[in-house]
Write a structure and sequence with these properties.
The structure is a homodimer. With about 180 residues, the first copy, chain A, is mainly α. In chain A, about 70% of the residues lie in helices and about 0% in strands. Chain A binds a DNA duplex (30 and 30 nucleotides) through helix 1 and helix 3.
Chain lengths: ~180, ~180
DNA sequence: AATAAAATCAAACAAAGTGTTCGGTAACGA
DNA sequence: TCGTTACCGAACACTTTGTTTGATTTTATT
């Protein structure tokens, strides 16, 4: 990939992130992004057709590393749920881009939706092992929703508790078998 | 209040609701609302300064009846949590305006935020009676988040289960003491 | 029924944002 | 070095916004 492309792409992402911490997504104009990123108007549109696609690209960028299936450097094995949750929290904490700034911003719910989509596929792999009477889709919704809320709370509290303890917390509070 | 005012206000609300079921909040223009409601441009702005304030007014209108502290016609006493949750679900089901259309729309998260605000104050009254080690604010987040997700799921499934059974479901799945 | 008050309307407006196109300039990779 | 590619800035037609104007109903009251 051309260095120039990467440079503009990063500049736009950074500008977008800066703006998102200051104001709501739907109040941010392309004009402002252009000014903040200091790129030409036509350049922006050659990279991203719309503001929505920019958001989309940025979310993929942000959440890719968090949910990638890599050998976990912190937790030995992540085949059990609790281990995988810790793993995920580790990645969130170590994420290079400031996730808390964005997830806790006025447009946080927007990113939460992307976040939840990833969580769905993650929890889906464990859903079979749970013994409960509630329907599967409800249970999934419940797990994803409460875990996402927990992450938000965790970030808001500056991640005082360790990923392991936090994951254990979550398991503890939810009757999943 | 003047009949004309009420008529315009209702027309705008209805137009807004119709549009919200078709497209996202931030893609809806004031122009479209005006056209759909068939009111003059200046009339709209004499009622609502901005689109955000219109949303705000409509949410208050929608959630007022759901969370008002009335003598419950369905559940005898609503001093216990489960009874209050049933009560809330009853109101949601009987709500005149189609809540599910809006809460499940593309802009559902927007309304969920308002919804959650009400839930917070509701759960706060019960929080003292819970015996658990997790911090109070985390527990609140957890309850509000998972209950809100449950309502969304419930609406999506066309409210097949009864309010009472659904509330019991929720209590059942959450370790709150 | 008459009247004063108030809400509505259409039209017009400047200002700001959108998305596209253009040719010129500069940076890249080979 | 040289062809390719990405960037820039300027201009464009177009839409949306929020405000103002003055004429036209509709309302509540007497």
């Amino acid at each position: 990939m051309d260095r120039r492309q990467l440079k503009t792409r990063k500049a736009i992402f950074k500008a977008f992130r800066n703006l998102l911490e200051k104001k709501r997504y739907d109040r941010i104009t392309v004009q402002e992004i252009i000014d903040e990123a200091d790129v030409g108007r036509s350049t922006f549109y050659s990279h991203f057709e719309t503001k929505d696609l920019l958001l989309n690209a940025m979310c993929e960028d942000m959440f890719y590393h968090i949910f990638e299936n890599d050998p976990c450097p912190y937790v030995g094995k992540d085949h059990d749920l609790e281990g995988e949750l810790s793993h995920t929290l580790w990645h969130i904490r170590d994420s290079k881009t400031d996730l808390s700034g964005i997830l806790l911003s006025d447009s946080g719910e927007l990113f939460m939706q992307y976040f939840k989509e990833h969580l769905y596929t993650m929890f889906e792999h464990h859903i079979e092992s749970f013994k409960t009477d509630v329907p599967k889709d409800f249970l999934l919704n419940h797990l994803v929703g409460s875990f996402a809320e927990m992450v938000k709370w965790w970030l808001k509290e500056n991640m005082k508790t360790s990923p392991e303890a936090t994951a254990k917390y979550f398991i503890e509070l939810t009757k999943i078998n």
